[in-house]
Amino acid sequence: MNNPQNDERIPSMSFISTCTADVIAQAARALKDGHLVAFPTETVYGLGADATNSAAVARIYSVKGRPADHPLIVHISSMKDLGEWAADIPEYAIKLARELWPGPMTLVLERSELAKDFITGGQDTVGVRVPNQPVALALLEEFKKLGGAGVAAPSANRFGAVSATTAMAVGEELSNYFGEHDLILDGGPSQVGVESTIIDCTNDLPRILRLGAVTSDMIQEITGLKVMELETSPTIRVSGSLESHYAPRAKVILDAIPKAGSGFLALSNVKTPNGVIRLASPGSLAEFAHVLYESFRQADGLGLDEVVVIQPVGNGLAAAIRDRLTRAAN
Ligand code: TXA
Ligand code: MG
């Protein structure tokens, strides 16, 4: 792959590949000054802005091309700061945070005064997450030292498109919309590869709003509570639960026999049909999640018309992968 720093096609932004302490401090300063910083997390790359700065947050929406009433997740460096953003935190949410943060889990809680309408989309709840990625945590720590309270960050892709799991992919998605002071931090590929599990903690029982690597079984084991079914609620807006999302340009077709020339993605124990372009052969569910979005990007890079995906079976991460695939196919 080209070294992005030398890539003339991406003139108006900075890739920073070696995240030294100086670079992280510079990025934290950029956030504090109201600029955007795309940064790696273990799930997908995020497009960050100071979560208390309405003008900076407004730029997230314009760079993403996202409708303005969709709420954003606030990223913090430690669960100690949860009380800044959330009020009335139930005991089971504290247990989840203690066990699973830093990690691929977003808790939706009653909001504090700090969480303004431009973060929550006008809802009375706020989504908060502590990501498990060293560059992300260092950035959030530095930002806090500068007096920052939290970093709002949606996935760093255009609205409805495939999430970015590498700095290069962020550049492809967003560079045309970036200003000269905006930054992309390169922390290598996102380990998990699908977005965080979102858990609504505003009722007596936890309710999963978006499937991810933190599974219903894990939540049940930690909280001792029954986990409510995933359902689409008309009163809560989760853009990741729109029917069409995460979609590449290529048509995504599920569990079908591919025609020659199609892209093909399946677990490694599925044989490659004749004449297809095998995009990846993940050996496990974790690897499937890890390669999913890059496989879609690869298909688009190759100009393929369609990608056939053989869906993994089972619960947990398999269900999260199928959730993304179903929406990508819509
Ligand atoms: O893994 C992730 O969660 C990544 C990384 C960057 O942290 N972020 C991410 O953000 O996927 P985004 O904006 O692409 O998706 C977040 C989802 C949206 O569908 C949004 O509607 C939902 O979280 N959300 C945020 N705050 C919420 C709230 N208060 N109530 C319900 N849903 C909320
Ligand atoms: Mg997203």
Briefly summarize what is shown.
With 330 residues, the protein is α/β, with parallel strands linked by helices.
Write the layout of secondary structure elements.
Blueprint: E1 14-16, H1 21-32, E2 37-39, E3 46-50, H2 54-64, E4 73-75, H3 82-85, E5 86-87, H4 91-100, E6 105-111, H5 117-120, E7 125-129, H6 134-145, E8 151-152, H7 167-174, E9 183-185, E10 197-200, E11 207-210, H8 216-223, E12 251-254, E13 263-265, E14 277-280, H9 285-301, E15 306-309, H10 317-329
Parallel strand pairs: 1-9, 2-9, 4-7, 6-10, 12-15, 13-14, 13-15
Antiparallel strand pairs: 2-3, 3-8, 4-8, 5-6, 6-7, 10-11
Residues 41, 43-44, 46, 70-73, 106, 108, 120, 123, 125-127, 129, 131, 153-155, 195-196, 198, 209, 236-240 line the site of threonylcarbamoyladenylate.
Please, could you describe this protein's structure?
The model is unreliable at 1-12 and 232-237 (pLDDT under 50). The chain is an alpha/beta fold and 330 residues long. The longest helix is centred in the last third of the chain and has 17 residues, at 285-301. Helix content is 30%, strand content 17%. It has 10 helices and 15 strands. The radius of gyration is 19 Å and the shape is globular. Strand 10 (197-200) and strand 11 (207-210) form a beta hairpin. It has helices at 21-32, 54-64, 82-85, 91-100, 117-120, 134-145, 167-174, 216-223, 285-301, 317-329; strands at residues 14-16, 37-39, 46-50, 73-75, 86-87, 105-111, 125-129, 151-152, 183-185, 197-200, 207-210, 251-254, 263-265, 277-280, 306-309. The two termini are 31 Å apart. The strands form 2 sheets. Strands 1, 2, 3, 4, 5, 6, 7, 8, 9, 10 and 11 form an 11-stranded mixed sheet that branches. Magnesium ion binds at residues 154-155, 163, 240. Magnesium ion (MG) is lined by residues 154-155, 163, 240.
